[in-house]
Specification:
single chain; about 400 residues; alpha+beta; Nucleotidyltransferase, domain 5; 60s Ribosomal Protein L30, Chain: A; 3 domains; 5-stranded mixed sheet; 4-stranded antiparallel sheet; 11 helices; 16 strands
């Protein structure tokens, strides 16, 4: 996992530094990574990216090491004299960049792996997990406080009301014969208390979610449990809650004993389905209100008229031109423009990934990446780049 400290340190790398930033899918369970397949593939890709031998060899040597703990992918940040490796528990698309730090690569990883809260709950236990970068970590567990000994089932049932004169009712005394049935008021009382305690527990846990998730900066929630129990729990979540429920599922066994690995296997398809749904909604917004064509989008971005830029997952495939004078920024897609119209400084050819940090800082731009089929649609139907206007 890439910690917040690691993320900040990578974001703070000096712009003039020459580093390799690479995402390597080294999942040992994949057939393509068996034998020499992994090292051969990664070496070819690093050569294509222009990685110098001294940096390349550091990565290859690291990949050759035996590990007791292994992620599915790894982020490498490597310079001539330093190597950082961060394991990630998710199969990520491979990317390789050598040159100035490509800080937008971190954004692309985190966008593909959203942080999600997962609450497994039944009438006895609640367990809160956090899914972060493909890892499911238990953050809290809480037991529903049971009835004390003075209110146990047998105590309540033995206190049921007997109808005078009924058979077995006791007549003038409990052991006297009678002539009518016994009332079930004790059983009803017990069930009413059980229902009240369960709903009070649900109310308490809902309040805890409302309090905790904003602190953890989590906006998405998945619920795990039986349909009736989740229906009861959801009635306690206020409509003003800052988080959104994106899915529900169930697991075998009770909440207290369930294996987190089983929960993980159930929730990952829900997270993926939510991502695809959101990306489909973005495409629909582009179709209705979006701006397309590279030059038009860049013009409107520099007029602060675009609030969200929509790109494929790897923006390094798009080349644009940036003014060499960073104090007077200017961006264009025109190949024939050799000088900036603002100050006459020379234009340099860069990738879209290179300018994303500048666009975000200068114009308050949000960047939305599309993946897989949605990315293909963005390229084929909308030219590969689009913007959503503020007005």
């Amino acid at each position: 996992m890439i910690s917040k400290t690691d993320l900040q340190r990578i974001q703070d790398l000096p712009e003039h530094a020459m580093v390799l930033m690479a995402v390597v899918n080294d999942n040992p369970d994949l057939p393509d990574n068996h034998g020499s397949g992994l090292q051969t593939r990664i070496k070819v890709k690093m050569e294509d990216a222009g990685v110098p031998p001294t940096v390349m060899n550091q990565v290859l040597e690291d990949l050759a090491q035996a590990r007791t703990h292994h992620g599915k992918s790894a982020l490498y940040v490597v310079s001539q004299d330093q190597l950082e490796r961060h394991d990630i528990q998710a199969d990520l698309p491979e990317r390789f960049h050598y040159g100035r730090p490509l800080k937008s690569m971190l954004d692309s990883i985190l966008e593909l792996l959203p942080t999600v809260a997962v609450l497994a709950i039944d009438h006895e236990w609640a367990r809160l997990f956090v899914l972060r970068q493909g890892e499911l970590i238990e953050a809290r567990s809480e037991e529903n406080v049971r009835l004390d000994d003075g209110d146990r089932w047998d105590t309540m049932v033995s206190g049921t009301r007997h109808v005078p004169g009924a058979p077995g009712s006791g007549g003038a005394g409990r052991n006297q014969p009678g002539s009518g049935p016994r009332s079930d008021s004790g059983t009803d009382l017990f069930q009413a208390r059980e229902d009240a305690m369960r709903q009070r527990f649900y109310n308490h846990m809902a309040a805890e979610l409302v309090r905790m998730l904003p602190v953890l900066e989590i906006e998405l929630l998945i619920l795990v449990g039986t349909v009736p129990r989740l229906a009861e729990f959801k009635t306690e979540i206020p409509s003003t809650a800052s988080f959104k429920i994106i899915g529900e599922t169930n697991v075998v066994g009770g909440t207290q004993s369930v294996n987190p690995a089983e929960i993980l296997s159930k929730i990952m398809p829900l997270v993926e389905a939510y991502r695809q749904e959101r990306e489909q909604q973005v495409l629909e917004q582009i179709q209705e209100h979006g701006v397309m064509e590279l030059e038009r989008v860049l013009d409107m971005v520099q007029q602060a008229r675009i609030y969200q830029l929509v790109i494929p997952e790897d923006g390094s495939q798009f080349h644009v031109y940036r003014s060499h004078n960073r104090e007077v920024p200017y961006f264009t897609g025109r190949k024939d423009l050799t000088e900036s119209p603002l100050d006459g400084s020379l234009m340099e050819r860069v990738t879209l990934e290179d300018i994303l940090p500048d666009l975000k800082d200068l114009y308050g731009l949000e960047v939305k990446r599309l993946h897989d089929g949605q990315a293909n649609r963005l390229v084929q139907e909308f030219g590969g780049l689009a913007g959503l206007p503020r007005y």
